[in-house]
Amino acid sequence: MTVLVLTLVGDDRAGLVASVSRAIAEHGGNWERSELAELAGTFAGVVEVVVPDSAAEELRAALSALDGTLTVAVHENPHAAERSGVDLSFTVLGNDSPGIVRELATALESHGLSIDHLSTETRDAAMAGGRLFEATFTARMPAGGDAAAVRAALEAVATELQVDVSLV
Fold it and tell me: What are the contacts of 121-127 at 24+ separation with CB within 8 A?
């Protein structure tokens, strides 16, 4: 079996997921995991698919035929099962300001962590005015990583940016 990672981008409209899922099913593939979203009128997503080796190229061709309604980039992932390490999850909440993601991502990078999932949003701060920033991070710490040092680095960034960071 071949593991493929698809990235999808296009103007949002009905039927995009249906067309991709049909192509996968028609080639004997299985939709394993995904993250899909509409942002500012654009549909975007990442999908992990497992397909028989013999059908991988035909699936690539079928997905490229969607170009015009949806741009699909196909990446083969031969190392999909080789992940190791420990997950570290945390949330961030505070007044919105430029650089929050940059500073937190840099702190994680400096300790060798890889971000597996990041979800962010801004919204109106009901009582105080202005905008609130909220994020949820899941990062993978390599085996032997120092969780206490990562926590201290995140707390230092939180203090500097005046946001709350809560480790889950």
Answer: 122/96, 125/95
CA quadruple 9, 120, 143, 154: dihedral positive or negative?
positive
Is 93 in contact with 133 (CB distance < 8 Å)?
A: yes
Compute φ and ψ for 155, nearest 5 degrees.
-65, -35
DSSP 106-156: HHHHHTT-EEEEEEEEEEE-TTT-SEEEEEEEEEEEPTT--HHHHHHHHHH
User: How many helices, marked H, and strands, marked E, lie in the chain?
Assistant: 4, 8
Task: Specify whether the backbone of 127 is left (phi greater than 0), alpha (psi in -120 to 50) or beta.
Answer: alpha
- Cα separation values, 80 from 3, 124, 168, Å: 7, 39, 26
Q: Contact, 92 vs 133, CB < 8 A?
A: yes
User: By C-alpha distance, which of 68, 76, 71 is closest to 3?
Assistant: 76
- The answer, yes or no, to whether residue 79 has pLDDT greater than 90, is no
The predicted-structure confidence for 97-140, as pLDDT tens digits, reads as follows 999 999 999 999 999 999 999 999 999 987 777 899 999 999 99
